[in-house]
Design brief:
By secondary structure, the chain is α/β, with parallel strands linked by helices. Helices cover 42% and strands 16% of the residues. It folds into 2 domains: 301 residues, Mur-like, catalytic domain (UDP-N-acetylmuramoyl-L-alanine:D-glutamate ligase), CATH 3.40.1190; 131 residues, Alpha-Beta Complex (Protein-Tyrosine Phosphatase, Chain A), CATH 3.90.190.20. It has an 8-stranded mixed beta sheet, with helices on both faces. β10 and β11 form a beta hairpin.
């Protein structure tokens, strides 16, 4: 089987099938020799920001001299992006080898009438095999959609867990209240394992605190009041946290909270019990302590990047995958800030299962952009660009254009931008498409 054939096989597995449960995943891990038991894991869940926290934590650990595996989702351009070491995705040959190893186990268990792994489950199993073979000092695992029942929650003894901001998303799967969703996310908390969490939402924070107490897990809340913004411009944000000053290369204020959660998570991992015991620091690996640790955190945050999450490109282009209520709220705050001194142009697309009319209404009324170009992303859930443009015009946006092709729509929006700022927002798929051809064009 070739790499392309393996990817085609994986992509044909429905992404949102009925989940068979964690015991199903454990059967496959056992068949593979339990690779997860050989890894030192940091486990991250949350509604918004978990990918960013993973990226910041990973960058800090590398700055401290460690090798770091990263399992995350979704991918933007190529499926290999989901499985990385030191921010280098598995190459095609490595990806194929991990796939073949897992598929051999799948065939053996299917002969015993064990159901086939789901899309996410198969990729997770591949990541565990890939990491076992390469033995990074740390592995950072991002949950898929939930926490308690997420495939990644088969890790019984992570070194640290982290929970980012909680919001209303995937309510059909996780519950229709903040408390219910927080309870699902808090399901990653393990007995005695430190948990660092975003305490900005009181009702979510209380659920997490209660779960931590039940598990005798040391809990460290991070509150918005602890994070002080010092300066913000097109190149990034400087902020103060816990008596130290840091800088992140992003346009979004909300990333200060994610960076703070990440630095506490990384510090907790790096200052854990000395030695090689479970939850301890890796033997023989680079270490940082005291002022060296502060410097590693500072360097790690400054050079960290997470594609399409308020990602700044040259010449005033910002890509943001905001696609739910909290994400749009954060985008609006950022856009309003920059609109004080810059013209704002928006390239927008959305998928059909999101409340895009409400998103559009808020963008027009609160941001009041000079121009909007609507487009659409391919797939079963796409919304026609013309439909989106009509909604923007209905809400009062005076200069609206549309194009079905994302690349054509970007060219239109970019020409309208002039010396202002262009935000590409509404869908992570849109941001990924724009990033693909911007990177190809060297912009």
């Amino acid at each position: 089987m070739t790499y392309r054939e393996a990817v085609s096989y994986i992509e044909e597995i429905p992404k949102f099938t009925t989940k068979p449960g964690l015991d199903h995943t454990r059967l496959f891990l056992n068949e593979l020799g339990n690779p997860e038991k050989e890894l030192r894991v940091i486990h991250v869940a949350g509604t918004n920001g978990k990918g960013s926290v993973c990226a910041y934590t990973e960058s800090i650990l590398r700055a401290a001299g460690f090798s770091v595996g990263l399992f995350t989702s979704p991918h933007l351009i190529k499926i290999n992006e989901r499985i990385q070491i030191n921010r280098v995705p598995a190459d095609d040959g490595q990806f194929l080898a991990a796939f073949q190893t897992v598929m051999e186990a799948v065939k053996r268990l299917q002969a015993e009438n064990i159901p086939h792994p789901t899309y996410f489950e198969l990729l997770f199993l591949m990541a565990m095999v890939f990491f076992r073979e390469r033995k990074p000092d740390w592995c950072i695992l991002e949950t898929g959609m939930g926490g308690r029942l997420d495939m990644t929650n088969v890790i019984d003894h992570p070194s640290v867990t982290a929970i980012t901001s909680i919001g209303l998303d995937h309510t059909e799967y996780l519950g229709d209240t903040i408390e219910k969703i927080a309870s699902e996310k808090a399901g990653i908390i393990k007995r005695g394992v430190p948990v660092i969490y975003d305490a900005g939402r009181a009702e979510a924070a209380e659920v997490i605190r209660r779960r931590a107490r039940e598990q005798d897990a040391p809990a460290r809340p991070v509150t918005p009041g602890e994070v002080e913004r010092i300066a913000q411009d097109r190149s990034g944000i400087s902020f103060r946290f816990d008596g130290e000053e840091y800088r992140i290369c992003t346009a979004a204020r909300y990333q200060m909270m994610n960076a703070a959660i990440a630095l506490v998570t990384a510090k907790t991992a790096l200052t854990c019990a000395e030695g090689a015991g479970r939850g301890g620091c890796p033997e023989g690996a680079g270490r940082a302590s005291g002022s060296g640790l502060v410097q590693a955190v500072r360097e790690g945050l400054a050079r960290a990047s997470w594609p399409c999450r308020m990602e700044i490109f040259p010449d005033g282009v910002i890509l943001d995958g905001a696609h739910n209520e909290d994400g749009i709220e954060a985008f609006i705050r950022t856009a309003v800030h920059f609109h004080r001194e810059n013209k704002v142009t928006i390239l927008f697309a959305a998928v059909s299962d999101k409340d895009y009319p409400a998103m559009i209404r808020r963008i027009v009324r609160e941001v009041n952009p000079e121009h909007v170009t609507a487009t659409c992303v391919e797939g079963k859930r796409k919304v026609p660009a013309k439909r989106l443009a009509e909604l923007f015009a209905k809400e009062g946006c005076r200069d609206v254009t549309f194009a079905e092709s994302v690349e054509k729509a970007f060219r239109i929006a970019y020409s309208k931008k002039e010396d202002g700022i262009l935000f590409c927002v509404g869908s992570l798929y849109l941001a990924g498409d724009v990033r693909r051809f911007m990177t190809r064009a060297g912009q």
